[in-house]
Design a protein that fits this description.
Elements (H helix, E strand, L loop, with lengths): L1 H14 L15 E5 L12 H10 L4 E3 L5 E3 L2 E3 L8 E6 L12 H11 L17 H5 L9 E5 L2 E5 L7 H4 L34 E7 L3 E6 L12 E6 L3 H10 L4 E3 L2 H7 L5 E6 L3 E7 L9 H10 L2 H9 L3 E3 L22 H10 L3 E2 L5 E3 L2 E2 L1 E7 L2 H16 L3 E7 L1 H8 L8 E7 L5 H9 L4 H6 L4 H12 L3 H18 L3 E2 L1 E3 L1 E6 L2 E2 L7 H7 L4 E2 L1
Parallel strand pairs: 1-10, 1-11, 18-19, 18-20
Antiparallel strand pairs: 2-3, 4-5, 5-7, 6-7, 8-9, 9-10, 11-23, 12-23, 13-20, 13-21, 14-22, 15-16, 16-17, 24-25
Helix pairs in contact: 8-10, 13-15, 15-16
Length: 533
């Protein structure tokens, strides 16, 4: 919580000055925010940027606040039966951006769409609904556990008590059934709706220019009140140097900046600088189907070999933290006592020796005539590449030879998510806070989760702990279980966590931004509340 407080104080302090601000009459009634890339579409994709942009347009039944408490969004009332299996949602008077009321039928349609056998991704919480797995397997025409009670009330019956249901459906955008009638789920990514969506959120999407910009207008009939920022433009600016130059020139109003630019902007009276704990932690992971990596000592050795504090200093000027856990530090589930691997190349070599690897004549480890040489594919991009080159250097120092290769977005994910995984070592990142913690962990570390299946990671002890976290009602016990899960992630090293860089923004001072921004996700959520001075 210390970092959150520091971030809030920083925003308040920096927002206090007006030096260099333009005259009020000169300020346009919009904000232009630079982002590194635009989403390809907004439905049927698994892109973090699509989720961030989508939350400007869409709304959900519930939401979770920074303290982990569930509150209603489109849901005005949402009681749970004493046995924890029946959830009754009464909708508030809300409308989609075409003026159509949000109804219980829209909720049922939305959830069945996400559960459709051909829909590419399914929120795990929806699979807890009775009949959902049968529907997903195309064995039934409807999900039996979803009932439209009346136009404003929908009832969910779950297979088992699942205390995270309201928490997890807070990430599920409610869609207008009438606008998607007749949708061919097989070709969902070609549907016009994915680029011209209608949601029940604070902004209407009014213009989308391929690889250039997306424009939003305030939705005046938004149930939560019209945004104070009437117009918003997300502009694609992939180059860091250009972001800084555009910010200085006043061509954009906000943009993420690199540490060097952040330091410079701290002295610029026209710019507010914002620093918050990063949502993203970086990692690299072995494919468990590759025999070398099935020995936990090898995975642990790689973790000991990485000098993460040095990586943080070299690549981010120390603006960030060493990644100790897959859970974001701002959340109650985070174990503040957890300590990951220290930099200990001697220990790494010892573990590799215990695993039977001995140095060859060229310094590279060998075992049974096999050199320890593997390919390391990483998602093309500056951060991934810089880390890959350091990781190559660190692993070479303990006798592991890796060949690094940048892979473009589409190719990377088609290879990475291929059944069996078409990779040996992969470098990627995970964005926290887009989905609830339990869903993140289920996805990444439960043996049936898509992330774990990709890696080939399967530990019954982990599955058991994840089940216990779901079934435990007591918050203190849940916290203890999550601590055990985090310790097991460290011990098993299915992913070698590296660093969590801070999120750094430069913002033109003519805008007053909310003081509660404590993450990248919170930054996007804050945009409707921005004000011009």
């Amino acid at each position: 919580m210390k970092t959150r407080t520091a971030a809030a104080l920083l925003v308040l302090g920096l927002a206090a000055g007006l030096a260099g601000a333009p005259a009020r009459g000169d300020a346009p009634a919009q904000a232009v925010v630079a982002i590194s890339n635009l989403p390809s579409r907004l439905l049927g994709v698994s892109q973090a940027v699509a989720a961030e942009v989508g939350q400007l347009i869409n709304d959900s039944l519930t939401a979770v606040d920074a303290r982990g408490n569930v509150g209603g969004r489109l849901a005005a009332r949402y009681p749970v039966s004493p046995d924890g299996k029946t959830y009754l949602v009464t909708l508030r008077d809300a409308r989609f951006q075409d003026g159509t009321p949000v109804t219980a039928q829209d909720v049922k349609f939305t959830y069945e769409l996400y559960l459709h056998p051909k829909y590419p991704t399914t929120p795990p919480a929806l699979l807890e609904i009775a009949g959902a797995q049968e529907y997903k397997a195309a064995k039934t025409p409807h999900v039996t556990g979803i009932t439209v009670v009346n136009p404003k009330t929908v009832r969910f019956i779950l297979n088992r008590p699942y205390p995270f249901f309201y928490e997890q459906i807070g990430t599920v955008a409610i869609l207008p059934a009438h606008a998607l009638a007749g949708l061919d789920v097989d070709r969902i990514q070609e549907a016009p709706f994915t680029r011209r969506p209608i949601g029940a959120g604070p902004y209407r999407l009014t213009d989308w220019r391929e690889r250039e910009s997306i424009t939003f207008e305030a939705f005046r009939d938004y149930w939560g009140g019209a945004p104070t920022l009437p117009r918003l433009v997300l502009k694609a600016v992939p180059d860091d140097a250009t972001v800084a130059a555009e910010l200085r020139a006043g061509n954009i109003d906000a943009g993420r900046v690199i540490p060097e630019a952040y330091r410079t902007f701290q002295r610029d009276p026209r710019i507010t600088v914002l620093r918050v704990p990063g949502d993203t932690y970086y990692w690299f992971a072995p494919n468990f189907r590759v025999a070398i990596f099935q020995d936990v000592r090898v995975r642990q050795a790689m973790a000991y070999a990485i000098n993460r504090p040095e990586m943080l200093r070299a690549l981010y000027q120390g603006l960030g933290t060493v990644a100790q856990s897959p859970i974001h530090p701002s959340l109650w589930q985070y174990d503040k006592n957890i300590r990951g691997y220290s930099y200990d190349p001697a220990r790494a070599k010892q573990l590799l020796a215990e695993a039977g690897w001995t140095p060859g004549s060229d310094g590279i480890l060998q075992k049974g005539g096999q050199r320890f040489a593997v390919k390391y594919g990483f998602l093309a991009g500056r951060d991934y590449q810089n880390q890959a080159l350091l990781i190559q250097q660190y692993l070479r120092a303990v006798g592991i030879d890796i060949q690094v290769q940048a892979v473009e977005f589409g190719d990377f994910f088609s290879r990475y998510y291929t059944p069996g995984g078409n990779f040996e070592l992969a470098g990627l990142a995970w964005f926290n806070l887009l989905i609830p913690v339990q869903a993140e962990l289920d996805n990444n570390f439960r043996s049936s989760g898509i992330g774990a299946r990709t890696l080939g990671y399967n530990n019954p002890e982990m599955d058991k702990l994840l089940d216990e976290a779901i079934l435990t009602r007591d918050r203190a016990r849940q916290q203890a279980v999550y601590a055990e899960i985090q310790q097991l992630v460290i011990r098993d090293a299915p992913r070698v966590l590296t660093v969590r860089p801070d999120v750094l923004w430069g913002i033109r001072r003519r805008f007053v931004v909310p003081a509660d921004i404590d993450s990248l996700s919170a930054f996007f959520k804050s945009l409707p509340r921005w004000k011009e001075r």
